[in-house]
Structure formats: C-alpha cells, structure tokens
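[step 3/7] fold_predict: job queued, chain A
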Amino acid sequence: MKTQILIAALFFSGLAAAQQAKDTLKVKNIEAVNIKKQVFKKQSDRFIYDVASSPIAKGTNTFNLLKQTPMISSIDGKSLKIMGKSDVVIYINNKKSNMDAEALIEMLKGTPSEDIQKIEVITTPGSEFQVESNEGVINIVMKKKKNDGYNGTLKMNNEQAYYNNPSAGASFNFRKNKWSVNSNFNTGSWTDRERYTLSNGDSTFRNESFGFNSDPNKNVGGSVNIDYELNKNHSLGFTYNMRYNKSFNSILDITNWENGALINRTVNNENAQTRNHSFNLNYEIKTDSIGSKLTSNVSYLWFNRDKMSTNESFPLNTDPDNKYSALQQSVPQIINNYAANIDYLKKTAKGSTWLMGVSYNHTNTDNDTKQDKIINNAIINDANQTNHFIYKERILGAYITYERKLSDKFSGKIGSRYEITRSSGEILGKTSFDRNYNNLLPYLNLNYAISSDHNLTYSFSSRIRRPRFWELNPSRTYFTPNNYTQNNPFVLASKFYNQEISYMYKNAFFANVSFNYVKDASNQIPLQGSVTGPENDENGNPVMVTKKFLRYIRTNYGDNKQFGLTLGMNKSWFKEIWTTNYSVNLGYNIYKGAVTADPTSVPVEGQTEVVEPYVINFKNFNVSGNINNNIRLSSNKDWFLGVNYYYGSKVKIESGTLGVRQSFDVSLKKIMGNWTFVAEVYDLFNQNYNSIQGVQPNGSYNNVVNFEYSRLLNIGVTYNFGNQKLKKAREIKSANDAIKSRT
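[step 4/7] structure written:
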C-alpha cells in the first residue's frame, strides 16, 4: 500500500511538475507575443491617432484632445489648423458636421475625450469630401456602444481674461430598441477686448491711430439628432441645428493723429444679431453584408445676420475744416440654401471600394445695405454706399473614387470631382454680373508600406475656393471715416493644386513635404490713395478738398506658391507617464501679383480718386513649431499636468510682415470618478498677438498691431452621468455642409 502510495505520489508530483512547466512555457509564450497597440499610425490616405490607447485621452475634452493630436495645432483656442497652415473641416464618424464654426468649437469643448475612439487626420482629402482650397479633414471616430439607456454630460467653464466669461453646456443621449436620440445645448457670455495701434502713410504724410474694441456677446446654441432603424438595412434620420448670437453695444474707440498733430476721435457703436437654423433629412440603405450602402440627404439652411452701427468723428483741434461728422449703417444679410445629395459606397469581395455621388446646392443671399450721413441732426441718405445686393448661386457636383489594395505593400486611390457653378449678382438699379464656370478636380493617392516600420505616401488634389457670402456683400466696416474694410462682389473663385509626400517611421516619427499652387488668389489688401472733390467751407462756399484714405479691399491679386516641410513625433516615455507630441513646420512662400485700382469704386461726379498700386512680389522663409507634453502625476491616473508651447516666426503675407507669435500654456487636471476638474492658463506671457508691418516699393507703409489680451485663466468642471456604454445615434452628413462653411 505504501509502495502504491509512493508510486502515485511520484506520478502526480511529476504530473504537477510537468503541468507547471507547461504553464510556465505558456506564460513565456504569451509574454513573447504580447504586442503593444499602435497609438499613431499611417493608413492609406490618412494618419490615425488611436486616442483610446493613449493616456492623453483621460479627463479632458475633444477640442483639447485635438490640439494635442499630431499635425494639429491651435494658437487662438477658436480654430484648428493642420501642419500650421491648412484650415480644417470636421467630420464625425465620416460625416461632416452640421454646425457653424463657433458652435462646432463649443460642441468639441463640451464632448468628453473618453467618448473618442480615434482621430483621423487627412491632409489631402479625396474627391468624396466636400472641402475647398487646401482644407484638410479631421475625422473624429466615436466609440461604438450597443446598450440601451441614457447618458449625458454637464459642463461649466469660467474664463478670466480682460473680462470674466462664463459658459455652460449639456448633452443628453438616449437609446431604446430602434430609436436613438442625441442632443446638446450650450450657452455663454463673453466680451472680446482688443487694442489697436495703426499707422500708415508715405514720405509726405503720416497717419496714426490708437484705440480699443470691446465686443460683448451672448450665445445660445444646440442640436437634436433623431435616428430610427426601420429594419436592419434601412435607417431614417433627422437633424436640427440652431445658433443665436447677440452682440449689442460693441464699441470701437479710436483716436487719430495726422503728421504728429492730434486730429479727432472716432467712436463706432454696433449692435448685431446672428440666427442660424438648419434641417436635414437622411435615408440610408445597406445594400449588402460587406459594407455597401446608399445614402441620401435633403437639407435646408436659413442664416440671418442684422448689424446696425453708428460712427461718429469728434474734432480734437481748432482746424475749421475738421468738423464733427457722423454716419449710421444697416448691414443685414439673409441666406437661404436648399440642397440634396445621393452617395453610393460599393465594396467588392476582392477588397476594392467604389465611392460615387451627386449633389446640388441652390443658394440665395439678400443684402440690403443702407448708409446715411447725419448732418445737423438730420439723416441724409448716402446713395453711393446704399445698395441692395442680390446673389444667387447653383452648384451641381458629381464625384467618383476607386480605391484598391494592389498587394500587401501597395495600395492606391484615384478619383475626380466635376462641379458646374452658375452664379449671378445684382446691385439693384446699379449693376449686375453673371459668373459661370465648370471645374474638373482630379485626385490621386498612392501608398507604399515599405516595411512594418516604414510607410511612404504621395497625394495630389485640386480644389476651388469660392468667396464666402459675407465677402461678396458690398458693404463697409469703419475704423475711421477714411479707414475701413470693404467687401467686393466681384471676387473670383481661386483654384488650388495641392501635392504632398508623407513618410512615417515606426508609427512615431513622421515627415511631410507639400507644394501648393494657387491661381487667382484673393485676400484683404490694404489700398492707400486720395479723393479730391468739392466741399463747402464754414461760409458755405465750395472748395476743393483732398482726403487720404486707407481701404482694406477683399480682392484677387495674382498667384502664390507655398512649399512646406513638417517634421514631428508622437511618443510615450517611462511606461506612458510622459507623452510627447512635437512638430516643426518649415515653409517657403512665393507671392506674385498686384492691385492697381479699387474694384469696388463707383465714379462720383466732380471727384477724382487716385489709388497707389499695391505690389505683392516677394519670397519668404518661415518656421513654426508645437511642443505638447502630458505628464501623469499619480499612479492612480487621476492627476495630469500639461505643458505646451507654440512658436511662429516672422512670416510675410499679402498685407505685410507678420511678427513673431508665441504661446506658453499650462494645465492641471484632476479626475474624481465621473467628475473632471481642470485649471488652465493660456498664453502665460501674453505673447500671442498680431503685429503686421507692410512697406511698398514706392515708400508707402501700413502697420497694424492687434493685441487681443490672450492670456486667460480657465476653470472647468465636467460631470458625466448615466450609462456610459450607450451607443449614440448616427452622425449624419447634411447636403448643405459645403455652404455652411461660407456663411
């Protein structure tokens, strides 16, 4: 018996030892094949930042998350750029956002970063994207969750800059069986404060102006998205977006000197309201089990902006020719847009993808500008500046794109977009014009995965930049009676040709070389000159008077070429305690053109206008960079320190040389369950402001310093409630998205 027990003991001990050896081997095998998930990688035509695998995505909002995404930057907290130069269009789950720019930023700031799965950066968008000029695309992919229930977010912020600016927002999501509803609401009040130093002239004349602008705003915005799944292959969706902004008693106060002598003080008081409502009806059909689908949209957009202003000039010297003057101005704008589109995505069993679609946009704008002079308390209409401008635009577009993986290493995407534009403008009773053009816009993307550590991509695209509707409205915004901005209804569309070569190493280091050529480029150009005409002296006798002017005119000027090189890295250190995102952008620009006349001038009997030619002919090298650091301060992953720095060197642009800009930001975040507390200081050293110096070959100059009090302290509190595993309703792309960006 003892022998049997001994044999059994030896047997089972050997079995246990063998099993332990197997388990040990199994553990070693598991350890050997354990692969760390790639946070940042290149795929086909886009860069992918898997933020769900990054410690940065804890305890912040989507806007701050985007600012720390490789290739993306924001220096003003109000806009985003790709590689320091390209403007961006936001897509959510591959569908373009329905919101205007300010409402979109507020939505991003109110969306918890924990809801984001990944961020895709598309520097050269394909033909299927509705973008203009050299805009890039940021596609935000939300986490997919299936549980029924509800959840939401409450967020409060308080910014202390020159003024105190509070804001609050809330989002609510509900899902039950076939119904999905998500909504958001935000409100806030803020006052922008800016300080101006303006000077212009030549060897014989010098004008200097100093002053400030105080612009109070109250804002309410929100959206509702309802999605109903008719069956597993058919879905119906409805989206409504709204935004209301009120800016009453906005004051621009400027004091003016001429040749060193105090002349007058100009005060501009403005009241403005903006209303924006948009509706979209979406229908989607899944046509097979591998991802093919047909999507259709019908949309309507109504945009209304009312602006009333009074501009008064008070004499501050004893010159009898320097009299009190005043004018009042009404500049309303109404935009109605009707749009529809059908898109078809076809996937094949061999892995190829076809994308094709058609779209139609019909836009009417109504701009009834009235301007009056106030003389001896009497209101006298200024017929030269009073106009009723009607603009109509119809755009029919069609695109087709083919994408295929040719081998394990090589893939390609080729496509084209054809757009037919028919537009007409009329200043009632004065002049009219028709502007019709057709554009074929090809696209090509070639991607070569050299190895698991090396990836190379070439992209080419061409795009059109149509004038924004406010740029076409022939109205003025006054600094002083002789210094103002002037919109231009005769601006032509610009054509962009964009090329890029991108290289990525080990999904952490990247380089991007770009070349952009712009034909019929347009911008706001400072035109100086003089107007000579009869005026009555103090005795009522007509005398000839010459007055200098400075007009910022939105107009075409010529062509430009831009070469760019971006080098960067995104990497975590010390077991993801320290996460870095560094990039540097090198640029070389060639601008060539000239503006020799004011395209908006209307001849006035008895007056002679002389415009000094404005020459744009220069080559320029510039550099900018971002340094973003996120440091986890505790092992519980509940304290985070952010240290960020932006630098932009001097760069020559159409209006002059823009000076050095810098911003040093610090943030501290604390996560307590569903609560997140944030304290942030932006532009700690107050170095983020615009200083432009422009000198022409004939010696005339125009200098502008615009200081916006950008240093601010922000305190934010966010609370997440409900079922955090809830899946949101479908994000739906409206048919009139391309129009919204131009309002």
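[step 5/7] annotate
The radius of gyration is 30 Å.
The domain at 37-741 is CATH 2.40.170.20 (Maltoporin; Chain A).
exit 0
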